[in-house]
Amino acid sequence: MPHFPPTSPTLMINQDSSFFLETNNEGLSLYSNSNKEILFQLKEPIILAQGIAEDPNQIHLAYLKKTGELCYSIISRTGEHQNTTLGKLDTRNNRYDRLILLPVDKVIHIFYATSHLALPDVWRITHLLWNGQTWKSAQLGEVVHPRHPLYHILLDSKSNLHLLMMTFLGNRSVLLSNFFNGSYHIWAKRQESLSIPREVVDMAALITPSNTGYLFWGAKQPGTDKFEVGFATQSNMCDFMSAWRIEPNPVNDISGPWKSFGAFDSDGVLNLLLNTDQERLFQFIQKRWNFISNSSSNHSTLHLIQKTESVINYTEWLLNQDELFTPLFSSEIQLSFNLPENLTLEAPAIEVPAIEASNSVPVFKTSVVTLPQPSITPESPPTSSQHPNTPVPEEQENEKVYVSLLKSLDEKISEISESHKALIEEQVAPLPKAIEALTLSVQGVSEAIASFTQQSLETQQALHSLEEKVNNLIAAQQPIRKKGFWERWLASMKK
Predict the structure, then answer these.
(1) What pLDDT, on the 0 to 100 scale, is given for residue 404?
(2) N or C: which end of the chain has fewer CB within 10 A?
């Protein structure tokens, strides 16, 4: 059975509310940062766990148990929760890492990386999608890294997903990117976006509410034992024609060992945390990177997840062990966790897309796997007179919108197909006449060649006959020329 390292805790931030997810060998606990009370607790060994505060009153959790059960829970601020088991994964022969959870309205995205014990450096990225009706699975490709999978997911303001994967190829690292359409739930074709002539050891990425993308990578400097941080930007992630542009390095000549780093946006200010021989904070102010603070203590890793307006950012950070549930350099990055006075504490309606526990998730060996269709849980808890599988009007309306979108897409595809068909027919129509004319021309050329060949044969025969006559005349004259003077004179007298 593979070795699974301890799971790092997670700090979830949404507006002025925050929640803390703590995991250990005995299970997990979810705390409210406002009063430090436990909202949800599970006493089973956990391999991976990740959460997000979709709004200030509701938290989504995804976690993988040591038994292989992949579970999903929704917890309210008052502690009410609903749980479901999505399926069972192979934890005996595979390692699992970097679990990412992105709930977007009624759609749920779950990402994780898998490596088999036989190929521990090759990580396969899997995407689980709840589209409001069924769970689906897709394989997004592989990355190569000896420690952990280098991939990142960005969610823009239009609910589109951007997959960024970094893999090492020989003497360079390659950034592979892909795009997921949030309206039609379709992945585009994966493409190579950047080529970096370095061995990249770590990466981080974030997106702002204005859809500006930022990419960071830590790389080994050639010929030395030092590291550097690379930096690239993309002006508009929603624009398909926009490309990554490499900027000057924020930091160079970093002494090892390399442990981790993270990037965080706080009120429009970019924060970069380096965890190497020291723990250092840099900020991007007035178009340049500035050193802000450092710490020589050995702080533990913290997953920092922030939802701002319509974008969600995941990053690695460090935990301040002197203050409970607080990230390192919290004052420098201007994070506050005060509970607003006017914030309601009423439990929101909870809806979890459920799958029967007896149905298990396959090992995802195929490119796309459709799981059994789950029942739809109503917005409010069902009463004795309400069947739990009866969809509420809002879900029915969402289903109508979904069907309408698909119908519109089919009509557009049909319209494009008919247009292309008419264009092809218009271009192909003159071809038969042109081919017929070409055939007649070829036949005429063949007849002309045959006539020319016949005339050539007749000319050769005439020349041969003329040659024979000339030879006969020459032969007749030769005996006369060979006679002597008296013989020629006597012959002429006889005439």
Answers:
(1) 56
(2) C
Q: Which residues share a beta bridge with 485? A: none
Q: 282: domain range?
A: 10-327
Name the token pair of 361: 């998730």
| CB 56 within 8 Å of CB 17 | yes
Among 327, 358, 387, identify where a domain stops: 327
Rounded Cα distance, 277 and 296, in Å: 8
- Residue 252 makes CB contacts below 8 A (sequence gap 6+) with 221, 226, 228, 229
Report d(CA 479, CA 495) in Å as an integer: 17
pLDDT tens for 6-48 read 778 999 998 778 999 998 878 999 998 777 889 999 999 999 9
Give the pLDDT confidence of 79-137 residue by residue, as tens digits. Answer: 899 999 999 999 999 999 999 999 998 899 999 999 999 999 999 999 999 988 899 99
DSSP annotation string for 47-82: EEEEEEEEETTEEEEEEEETTSEEEEEEEETTS-EE
The two three-digit tokens of residue 451, written as one number: 């006539």
Domain CATH for 15:
2.120.10
Same domain, 442 and 314: no
- H/E run at residue 441: helix 431-482
